[in-house]
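$ run holo --ligand "zinc ion" --emit C-alpha cells
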Amino acid sequence: MGEPRTKISLEIPFAPASSRNGDIISPLLVDRCGVERRAQNSQSPRVRNLRLLRLAALWFLAATTVFAAFERPSDNERTGATGNLYEEPELVRELFRADADFPPIATPRRGDWLMFHREPGQTFDEYRASAAIRADEKRRVIYLLPLGEFPADDAPSLAVLREYAATFFQTEVKILPAYYPHDLEFDPRENEFTHKRQRLTRAIHGWLHARLPADALCLLAVTMDDLYPDKEWNYVFGEATFEDRVGVYSFARYDPAFFDEKRGPGWRDRALRRACKILTHETAHMFGLWHCVYFDCVLNGANSLEESDAQPLHACPVCLRKLKYALRFDPVRRYEQLREFYRAQKWFEEADWVTRQLKRVPPPAPSR
Ligand SMILES: [Zn+2]
Ligand SMILES: [Zn+2]
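-- output --
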C-alpha cells in the first residue's frame, strides 16, 4: 500500500452534517487548515501519517458536542518546546527566548479552535526529527500561480503577497503566468447558499502537480474564485497536499462584497492582512509545521475569521526556530526586512514589534 495522501486544507464553516461526522470524532486530529494527524498514542509515524481531513463548521461541531480539553502547556513545557538554544549562534539566541511580546497562548474561549480540537503541539525537536522538507540548492523557490482574474479593485495585490512571502520565509518567491480556466474546468458548481461559482480543489491539485517546477519548495495557486473540497461540503478557503507540495487558496471570502455586504472603510487593508496571514500560515504547514499551542502565533489554529484576525502575523520563538531550520535564514536580516515591509504597508504596530525584537540582538563585537 502506498502512503496515505497528506493534505492540508482550510477551515470549512457551515459544512453540512453528513456521514463524515465520524471523521470528527475519529482518532485523527483536524486543524483549521485541515492539517490532520494521528493522535499521539497512534502507532504510526507522526508526520508521514498526515492525511486529508476537513474542518467542520462551528455550529456543526457544537451540535455534535465534540469538545476537546486543552491543557495549556506549563512554563517549562513552553520553554522546552524551543529546544536547546545553545545550538544557535549567540548573536541570535535571544530571539528564540520568549519575552513580553510573546504572550503564552490564552485559555480558549467558547467557540475557539482549541475548544474543539485536541492539539498535541509540536516541539522544535519533534519537528526537526520529522521528514519535513528543507530548502536546499535544488529546491528553494515558492511559486505562486494566479488562477483566474485578480482585478486590481477587488483582489489583494499579488506583488505585495509575493514580497511578504519572500520576506517572511527569506526565500525566492516567483509568480508564474496566470492561468485562466475555462468556465467548465475544475468541476465548477454553483453554491446553494451564495449562488456563486466554486471550483473543486482536488481537480486543481492534479493540474498543479503536473506543473510543479523542479526547483519548487511548493506551488500555490491563488484565486478569487470560491472553492469546495467535495460535493458534500459548502466551501473551503483552501486546501493543499503536503506530499505533493501543491495547494490552492481563495481570497474570495475576504471581500465583504462576496456576501453582497458593504465594504466599509479599511476593508482592503483587512483583506490584505488576512491574505498575508493565511499565505504564511498555510505555507508553513507545507514546511511541516503543525499548529502552535505554546504562544500567540501565526501558526495558532482558528475556527473563524474573527479568531484568525485576533492572532498575530508573527511566528513565536518555537515556530520561528522551525522556520529558520527549514529555510536556513538569518533571523536578524529577516526581521529587518519584515520591518521595512510593515512600514511600507503602514502597519506600524507590527513594525514597532519587530523593532523591539531587534533591540534584543547584541551589537557585533568591534573588530580589532
Ligand atoms: Zn492551520
Ligand atoms: Zn508558534
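-- notes --
The first helix runs from residue 21 to 24.
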